[in-house]
Amino acid sequence: MISVNNIGVEFGVKPLFSNVSFVVNDNDRIALVGKNGAGKSTLLKILYRLQSPTSGNVSVSSDTTIGYLPQVMNLKDDTTVREEASKAFAGISSLKAELDRLNAELAQREDYESESYLDLVERFTATHDKLQILGADNCEANLERTLSGLGFKRTDFDRPTKEFSGGWRMRIELAKILLQKPDVLLLDEPTNHLDIESIQWLEQFLSQSAKSVVLVSHDRAFLNNVTNRTLEISCGKIADYKVKYDQYVELRKERREQQIRAYENQQKEIADIKDFIERFRYKPTKAVQVQSRIKQLEKIVPIEIDEVDNSSMHLKFPPCMRSGDYPVICEDVRKDYGDHMVFGNVNLTVKRGEKVAFVGRNGEGKSTLVKCILNEIPYTGTLKIGHNVQIGYFAQNQAQMLDNSLTVFDTIDSVARGDVRLRINDILGAFMFGGEASEKKVSVLSGGEKSRLAMIRLLLEPVNLLILDEPTNHLDMRSKDVLKEAIKAFDGTAIVVSHDREFLDGLVTKVYEFGNGKVIEHIGGIYDFLQKHHTDSIDAATNNNPSPAASDAKAASEPSQGKQNYLEHKELQKKLNKMKKAVDKAESQIGELEKRLGELDELLLKPENSSNMEIVEEYTSIKAKLDEEVDNWEKLSEEYEQLSSQ
Questions:
Q1: C or N: which end of the chain has fewer Cβ atoms within 10 Å?
Q2: Exposed/middle/buried for 131, CB within 10 Å: 0-12, 13-18, 19+?
Q3: Mean pLDDT, residues 432-444
Q4: pTM for the structure as a whole
Q5: Pick the CATH number of 328-559 from 3.40.1190.10, 3.40.50.300, 3.30.310.50, 3.40.50.2020
């Protein structure tokens, strides 16, 4: 479907990658992995023909259609959700018009035996078949099913897209791409703006309905549930693993250990050769051997070891001016879009130095309340910003606010003031933009690199109230950890909007839950909040937003056991899940062995096979394996029952 032939990409002296070749086949579900900046997003753009490689070429068969979801998109807000999603069927409308034209021409023709008439019939049939494949007769049903799967309610379909947050608008774009049913889907971080239910729906869709998929994601569970092949960009090359992500991690570990052993052996060999050359360079009797060793040394191809990202991002917010005791106070704040109430009667107080989380499903008003605090949109009620409060804001779409025509250095230089301008290179180096990387154009940066660059801009001015809206969306695990530690050490106040439970753990001391038009305050960390809801997922916890009274009653009747009990429960659940999988696997193997035993029974009943020792031996072997597997199943089932009763 897509053939990549010896492509290379260069943005400076050091190439991003070179001599890369692979093929995307039908039914491939490929995870594209590598450290931030390795070229994952660039490779997707090349596959979609948005960018050309420096060398080599990409071949796409003429009948192959490709759908591409980038990390960042320029979205328009002049239609309703239904109208915007219906744009996916523009191609179907064109095909219908073409079918009508062909049908009309067939009706006028009478040269039924001519070659041109037969060619016309063939084109009519091909166009009709394509319309059937695209589901032309079920467009509306497919549209509603897809939008519902991605989390939209039916009442949302006719609402203007401008009423939705950036995350929901990205879902509309994803819906449009899925509805087009392309032969190859290129998805760059598709789960960034999805809650758990939508992620599960997308997993099922990609596994069952998509033809071929190439995706970039930091969501390990998503990769494991969707992909069957892993392409790793490392050392500017592509390593192709025909396995899921978890298996790739193990194979990559083994591969790297082998590379290290081979590298060490090669270094020893090189050292021995050099030592021989130095020892006998000036001895005439050894001249032939020395020349032979020199040639041998020149022919050695250095062994490369797959790179591991050991770089570190040192992030430190500058000392801030002391603000008033209460940076943010909301009293009966309400926000409506037309007849739709986003939230009402919001009463909250954020104290100086607090780190608080805004959680809830996309569209419930988290980003909207942030915009109210920033005074970017009108609202009703009273919202007070405390004395001497200086706000630093990191938005979901921060990458879109960067000027793509500037270099990394110029982006920071344009906003730096005073002595900071003398330290720009040091600051960039701390954020892994040292050396040539500082001369890269913003347009060629990955999503994670753009997020880091936007974070540098936020650091240039001292602020005492940080508002971070989904700051981890484009960051890898290493960068998330560094950012988390920096916020913990920040001596000002922080409001963090996030779905990322692990990021919020140990960071926030208060959680505000958004849902059903309400904002409910929960004292304690994110694990205390989750424990109240008896779940380990923020999205699951916020699905059924209970009333404040119900929450208080539940909390009173069931005192919090704290994070420790929660983790113990979670560990037990992991063991149960693992044991259940083992039981199911044993049952499956028993079924397969019994099936084969039945087949062999039928074969042995035939007279001509009565003395066939090969069949008899297989029957004996299968019977022994079956007895062994039944014993194993009984043991596993007993252990599972004992564990379940704890």
A1: C
A2: middle
A3: 81
A4: 0.52
A5: 3.40.50.300
